[in-house]
């Protein structure tokens, strides 16, 4: 029996929708679920309205037509995803005691909170199904989502390099490779529509960070790694 992955930080309890902004948020939440489940072509305003518990006219009043609503869903998911990413980046090990163990733990938090969570799952499904239909929209997502993550992570890796833990020529390239390695072993599970187990997330983070440190680690990584106690 596998243990399902659970985000480190859970969102606050959802209160009953009240007022203009709460209704708007409720519609976006319902629309995200419907678009991911049915695809753009299979979704319709009536289905979204029913799932949100509002009238068809309320959906139109808040978001206009289906295409405009879809665009709003992608932007909303990107904003939510960014919030989780930057909250997790705040826990990056700037002063590691055991750089391998600390980076593995960080990658597990990143995968739990930003890749395996609802927003990450929905964004992957929408991109896979609709990126050809909306290339400009997903270019916007790339610039406001992953590009910001790459830049923020690159700055943190550069600080580790300055401290002597890493040997990096181009922090931007290293940041993209770091993120690719962190969840490389999870891609097949995602492709098949599954949710990785805790053991799979640990294995992916471990394999990814060991590969990253083989590429970028310095002698200091080995010298400062805690050694097992003598028997």
TrEMBL record:
Q: Which residues bind DNA?
A: 44-63
InterPro entries hit by this protein? Homeodomain-like_sf, HTH-type_TetR-like_transc_reg, HTH_TetR, Tet_transcr_reg_TetR-rel_C_sf, TetR_C_Proteobacteria
Query: Pfam families, alphabetically?
Result: TetR_C_7, TetR_N
What's this protein's name? Answer: TetR/AcrR family transcriptional regulator
Q: Which residues form the HTH tetR-type domain?
A: 21-81
* UniProt organism field: Ollibium composti
Q: Which UniProt keywords apply?
A: DNA-binding
């Amino acid at each position: 029996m596998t243990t399902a992955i659970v985000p480190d930080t859970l969102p606050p309890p959802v209160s009953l929708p009240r007022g203009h902004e709460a209704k708007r948020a409720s519609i976006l939440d319902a629309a995200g679920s419907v678009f991911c489940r049915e695809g753009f072509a299979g979704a319709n305003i009536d289905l979204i309205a029913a799932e949100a518990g509002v009238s068809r006219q309320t959906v139109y009043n808040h978001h206009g037509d289906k295409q405009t609503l879809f665009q709003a869903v992608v932007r909303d998911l990107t904003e939510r995803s960014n919030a989780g990413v930057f909250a997790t980046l705040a826990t990056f090990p700037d002063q590691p005691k055991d750089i391998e163990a600390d980076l593995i733990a960080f990658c597990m938090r990143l995968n739990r909170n930003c890749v395996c969570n609802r927003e990450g799952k929905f964004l992957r499904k929408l991109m896979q199904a609709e990126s050809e239909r909306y290339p400009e929209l997903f270019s916007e997502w790339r610039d406001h989502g992953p590009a910001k993550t790459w830049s923020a992570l690159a700055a943190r890796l550069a600080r580790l390099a300055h401290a002597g833990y890493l040997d990096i020529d181009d922090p931007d390239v290293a940041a993209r490779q770091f993120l690719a390695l962190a969840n490389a072993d999870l891609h097949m599970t995602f492709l098949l529509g599954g949710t990785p187990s805790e053991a799979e997330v640990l294995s992916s983070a471990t394999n990814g960070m060991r590969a990253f440190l083989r590429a970028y680690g310095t002698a200091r990584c080995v010298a400062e790694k805690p050694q097992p106690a003598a028997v």
